[in-house]
Amino acid sequence: MTQAPIALSCGEPAGIGPEIAARAWDALRDSCPFVWIGDPRHLPEGTPVEVVSAPADAIALSARALPVLHHPFAAAATPGQPTPENAAGVISAIERGVALVQSGECAAICTAPIHKKALIDGAGFAYPGHTEFLAALAGVDRVVMMLASDQLRVAPATIHIALSEVPRCLTPDVLRDTIRITHDGLRARFGIAAPRIAVAGLNPHAGEGGAMGREELDWIAPLIDEMRAEGLDISGPRPADTMFHTAARAGYDAAIAMYHDQALIPIKTLDFDRGVNVTLGLPFVRTSPDHGTAFDIAGRGIANPTSLIEALKLAQRMAQGAA
């Protein structure tokens, strides 16, 4: 067990974040202590709550109640209907969680889903998403979004951009950084001494010798050869349509994809409920459930907490360097 609890930022209070936080606490209790950062009135009625003054208090309390660091919001929450007045509270709860991890009071941060439009409309949120905001808070220029489960770890080199922009934004520097950060993260956070990394091609059939695109020939394959010569156990570029079946996955510890859907479709197909979003390249551990706010089912008590449970458990293991 970690020496400090996980910080769980509340996310969008009008979404499913509060109810899955309560259900995650009930499932984990003291096996994976975490402290919820948010306004207690946003939690489901009847949730056993203990307001704490410091994260360390959560260790002793988590067996009997959900430990909460009171983070007052401007307004109550109506399920499915984000309130502009609460946008600033969502953002500041994330900032508070990061500060607690940076100070050592929490072992890692797990972030409940946010709704970017609500944050933009209510507080002028200036980032494409959680990942980019956390990078700014940590003062780092480049991070990698990895989706992880027991069946697959995959990291897209480009993330929240239009498909038409991928060939322009996918540069040798971007791909090299993605591979390097993934390699270092697998060693430091997942306890894999010699990571095996497979890289997908950009084009169908990895370009098929130039017949379907030349990026693989012109620079992707040479970059992989160069990094292999530096000592990395790396293969590719591989055709993306043949690298995610069972036998192929047995040959690598993580896959690098070239764009968002090339990475997320296979992991969500293989393990939809247990996929976890991990940010590599930060000076602290961050995980998140691999789903959104689900406004359509918020407040109905039917949201599946499995991805959040897995995200909290993975954060605990990563904090110990043995995920």
UniProtKB/TrEMBL annotation:
Cofactor(s) it depends on: Zn(2+); Mg(2+); Co(2+)
Cofactor note: Binds 1 divalent metal cation per subunit. Can use ions such as Zn(2+), Mg(2+) or Co(2+).
Similarity annotation: Belongs to the PdxA family.
Enzyme class name: oxidoreductase
Stated name of the protein: 4-hydroxythreonine-4-phosphate dehydrogenase
Function according to Swiss-Prot or TrEMBL: Catalyzes the NAD(P)-dependent oxidation of 4-(phosphooxy)-L-threonine (HTP) into 2-amino-3-oxo-4-(phosphooxy)butyric acid which spontaneously decarboxylates to form 3-amino-2-oxopropyl phosphate (AHAP).
Underlying gene: pdxA
Entry binding sites for a divalent metal cation: 160, 205, 260
Alphabetized Pfam families for the sequence: PdxA (PF04166)
